[in-house]
Specification:
This is Protein Asterix. The protein is mostly helical and 117 residues long. It is 61% helix and 0% strand.
Length: 117
């Protein structure tokens, strides 16, 4: 028994003095890591800003841009992201589109159409 365990130690290439136990890194949700993609957060904020502009100023193109930004934010979100915030931004942008068309059902004329038209 003693001879077989001694033989095992000589053929084992691992070094016991170099072994370190794995410790999972501490993740702080407030501070992004250098490699983290911030696209969902930025598009979520843009979506909320454009939603408010669409609701307050009755600008249909702002409401549509808000919906576009919310879709990008939803598509790029991770599983562990705050789903309530993303969903509320998405619902806010949908309500901006619906409210802008309920107040004025005519087709949208973007402000840049007079420049190119």
């Amino acid at each position: 028994m003693i001879g077989s365990s001694n033989h095992q130690n000589h053929s084992d290439p691992r070094r016991a003095d170099r072994e370190r136990r794995y410790k999972a890194p501490v993740i702080n949700s407030q501070v992004p890591s250098p490699g983290e993609d911030m696209t969902p957060d930025y598009t979520n904020i843009l979506g909320m800003i454009f939603s408010m502009c669409g609701l307050m100023m009755r600008l249909k193109w702002c409401a549509w841009v808000a919906l576009y930004c919310s879709c990008i934010s939803f598509a790029n979100s991770k599983v562990n992201d705050d789903t309530k915030q993303i969903l509320s931004s998405f619902m806010l942008s949908i309500s901006a589109v619906v409210m802008s068309y309920l107040q004025n059902p005519q087709p949208m004329t973007p402000p840049w159409s007079s420049v190119f038209g």
